[in-house]
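Hi all, posting the design record for the shared folder.

TITLE: backbone redesign
STEP: 1 of 1
STRUCTURE INPUT:
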């Protein structure tokens, strides 16, 4: 999926494939391809196979980076929040939550805060004023 920005300049991974129809409409007919059409189609198939390999390699790299980033965030994400006492964190939560909000887990601030990390979940769940 392409980025919102011009991805070729942004991340260098996405580029339009522009595969076209190398068969010259043979897919929609019962005609036998000529030798030149077979050569054209074979070249296009080879190019598509190489592009598929490139995309699979990029996907493997991105998957590894995704895993590494998730692990990093999970290990180090709670370091910043550890500095605040639970009581202060609870007060901050109370100021972040709209009392008139629905109980919908997607839009309710208390539910959102409870998904940040284990500590925040514990503080949010034990702060009865949030609920």
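Okay, here is what came back for every position:
SEQUENCE:
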């Amino acid at each position: 999926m392409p980025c919102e920005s011009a991805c070729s300049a942004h991340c260098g991974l996405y580029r339009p494939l522009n595969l076209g129809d190398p068969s010259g409409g043979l897919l929609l007919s019962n005609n036998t391809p000529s030798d030149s059409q077979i050569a054209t189609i074979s070249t296009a198939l080879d190019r598509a196979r190489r592009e598929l390999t490139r995309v699979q390699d990029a996907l493997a790299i991105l998957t590894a980076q995704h895993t590494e980033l998730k692990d990093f965030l999970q290990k180090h994400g709670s370091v910043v929040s550890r500095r605040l006492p639970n009581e202060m964190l609870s007060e901050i939560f109370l100021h972040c939550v709209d009392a008139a909000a629905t109980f919908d887990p997607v839009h309710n601030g208390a539910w959102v805060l409870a998904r940040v990390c284990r500590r925040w979940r514990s503080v949010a769940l034990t702060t009865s004023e949030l609920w």
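COMMENT: The longest helix spans residues 35-76.
Let me know if anyone wants the other runs.
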